[in-house]
Design brief:
Number of strands: 10
Distance between the termini: 40 Å
Structural class: alpha+beta
Largest sheet: 6 strands, antiparallel
Strand content: 5-15%
Shape: globular
Low-confidence stretches: 639-653
Number of helices: 21
Length: about 650
């Protein structure tokens, strides 16, 4: 009965989404206040109904209700409770329902927190958001219904994909979806602005918190996915330029550009049309990512589905919203005139350079991701674009971005003088000295490590110079520093986090040590300054898997450090093996050990990595997200930029 009610609630939610699109948009066009006032009500009702359906699906997974097809295919009675809950979104149908839930959540939040918005603008924002919800609800109900019954329920299910049975990946998709779908509200703000024909400083301030929230969630989601790939897949990497990894990275790059561009709109009344375009592109790339993950046009270990019918439906959604938004932008962009004037050397110019580098980087990732598909369609050739292409094509733009960030942060608005640039010369000289010293010490290795070290130091010290600059002259520097707005502290923290991540990526790429050998029980191996000893290998049973677990002793200079327990797991229900790495983590390095299958000649294949600065990658991501969170709690965003006002109304109904 609960499942039928949940399915019925989704149908009712679709009806409210259709009305929530038509009535507010018509009301804002006809200037009917009573119609526009219904927009928050429709949005709230959609959220309540979809939340009820999602809760019912969660109950079905927790209680192992095998009358539902999606539960049969993605759950099992022996599965731990955490993964029963994660199974709700660990499949195509459930993840789409989560997508719709977050769509309605953001709409409901906009209805609650958008009370200071002009009534017509809020009505248009919620109307556009409801149209997106209606499209995805139709997708769920017509092609991906999570409440489809099976005629003869089995006694047990087929279990969740073993790769998804991990705490890191259990929380990875929800954070990514909060980022993906959070960009829908910025898209709705952009379309509403185009319909209104007005973009001003207030609009820039309104759109920034929503973009910031989506960017924070994307940062956390991408970080969790990278961390999971590092310790779970057993290949020792943190990023493979997989199509689905790229699908989340592209909106992250564009949303970062949007954050910086919205600052120029708010502060200087410039870059209006460009900011609107970025808001459209950010959500457009989220839809492209959805198409990649669910259509099966590109192969990925992360893909949810391989169904041409679903792919066509998503392509239609992409065409209507992305194509329609670009058409509307082409028709109305001339109305987005910018009045701000600035010199070539100024903070505005630095932010434009920042935007261009981020946009070009995103374009490079996009081309590398879709090129195999284009080559197959146009040239009938099977091609693959892997890490070598992305590393060569993407890295120069990130290096240029890292160089520009501290310069732009210390420049004043409108016009800069030579004195503003001279403050960074000592830092630049110090960073170049760090690069040279590291290059001399590493004896013949790649230049990536020294350059990454220099860029990391440049970004972090640039943050310190900027904060010192903000304290002004004379006494009371500390009080002025502590009284800086949270947005300024957030920006400084996020930039420092980026520097730490760059340093970590450079370190693990340039200075990693790898060793592969066959070891018998009792054998020891000297790897760099560490001694690795295979003490024991035994077969054990987990809650829903069988495992071959190795006991490896790690020592350094004869002193015991830790026991590592790498595993080879086998999940009988899914008939699938997985790898669990044994990792000893430290501030300056990780020792990463993977055990393979037993060898015919005796012993086990053991793969050992010494990974310098590995944890700096995810520490930097956490710091970036914390910086975004600090900015999000800035008082200016809580209070609102303008008081609520009532638009002139004609012919109230």
């Amino acid at each position: 009965m609960l499942n039928e009610l949940a399915h019925f609630s989704l149908n009712i939610a679709l009806g409210f989404a259709v009305f929530g699109t038509i009535v507010p948009l018509a009301g804002s066009t006809l200037r009917r206040s009573s119609w526009m006032q219904l927009a928050p009500i429709f949005s709230t009702l959609q959220f309540i109904l979809v939340a009820f359906a999602f809760g019912a699906l969660t109950v079905a997974f927790v209680s192992s209700d095998f009358s539902l097809r999606v539960v049969v295919l993605n759950s099992h009675t022996l599965k731990p409770m955490l993964y029963k809950i994660a199974g709700v979104w660990g499949n195509h149908e459930g993840s789409l329902l989560l997508w719709v839930l977050i769509l309605t959540l953001f709409a409901a939040c906009a209805a609650v927190f958008g009370r200071t918005l002009p009534q017509s603008l809020l009505a248009r924002v919620l109307g556009v958001q409801s149209s997106i919800t209606a499209a995805f609800l139709a997708f769920v109900l017509f092609t991906s219904n999570p409440f489809t019954r099976v005629e003869f329920p089995p006694f047990n299910g087929q279990g969740l994909n073993p790769l998804l049975q991990d705490p890191g990946l259990a929380f990875h998709p929800p954070f990514l979806y909060l980022g993906y779908v959070g960009l829908s509200i910025t898209f709705s703000f952009a379309i509403a602005a185009l319909l209104e024909g007005k973009v001003d400083a207030a609009w820039g301030r309104w759109v920034r918190p929503w973009t910031l929230a989506a960017w924070i969630f994307l940062t956390i989601g991408i970080g969790l996915g990278s961390w999971w790939a590092y310790y779970e897949l057993g290949w020792g990497g943190f990023w493979f330029w997989d199509p689905v990894e790229n699908a989340s990275f592209m909106p992250w790059l564009i949303s970062a550009a949007l954050l910086h561009s919205a600052i120029v709109v708010e502060k200087r009344d410039a870059l209006k049309a460009w900011t609107i375009l970025l808001a459209i592109l950010a959500f457009g790339f989220s839809l492209i990512g959805t198409f990649i993950v669910r259509s099966g046009v590109l192969t990925s270990v992360h893909a949810f589905a391989n169904d041409p019918e679903r792919g066509v439906f998503i392509l239609m959604i992409l065409g209507v919203f992305f194509g329609g938004a670009l058409l509307l932008f082409a028709l109305r962009a001339n109305a987005m005139d910018s009045k701000g004037v600035f010199a070539t050397v100024s903070r505005e110019s630095a932010l434009i350079a920042n935007n261009l580098l981020l946009a070009i980087s995103c374009f490079v990732v996009f081309v590398g991701t879709v090129w195999p598909l284009v080559a197959e369609l146009l040239m009938d050739r099977k091609l693959s674009v892997g890490p070598p292409f992305f590393n060569v094509a993407f890295t120069p733009f990130m290096v240029a971005l890292a160089v520009i960030l501290p310069i732009g942060s210390t420049l004043p608005w409108k016009r800069a003088k030579r004195a503003h640039l001279s403050r960074l010369w000592p830092v630049a000289v110090f960073c170049l000295a760090c690069v040279g010293l590291t290059w001399a010490m590493q004896t013949g290795r790649s230049l990536i490590g020294p350059v990454g070290l220099g860029l990391g130091v440049w970004l972090v010290m640039g943050v310190l110079i900027e904060l010192y600059q903000r304290t002004g002259r004379g006494t009371g520097k500390w009080s002025r520093l502590l009284s800086l707005p949270l947005a300024d502290w957030g920006k400084a923290t996020a930039h420092a986090g980026l520097g730490i991540t760059i340093f970590g990526v450079a370190g693990i790429t340039a200075w990693q040590v790898e060793d592969i050998r066959v070891m018998a029980i009792g054998d020891s191996a000297e790897i760099a300054e560490f001694t690795v000893t295979l003490d024991n290998v035994e077969d054990l049973r987990g809650p829903n898997y069988l495992t071959t677990m190795a006991d490896i002793k790690l020592a350094r200079d004869g002193k015991f450090i830790a026991n590592l327990y790498p595993e080879r797991r086998y999940y009988p229900v899914a008939e699938m093996p997985t790898t669990e790495a044994g990792i000893d983590s430290g501030l300056w390095r990780d020792v990463y050990v993977v055990v393979g299958d037993a060898q015919p000649q005796g012993g086990y294949a053991v793969r050992t990595f010494i990974k310098p600065l590995a944890n700096w990658i995810w520490t930097g991501a956490i710091i970036m997200a914390m910086g975004g969170l600090l900015s999000l709690f800035d008082r200016r965003y809580r209070v609102g930029s303008v008081a609520a006002r009532r638009d002139p109304v004609e012919g109230e109904a």
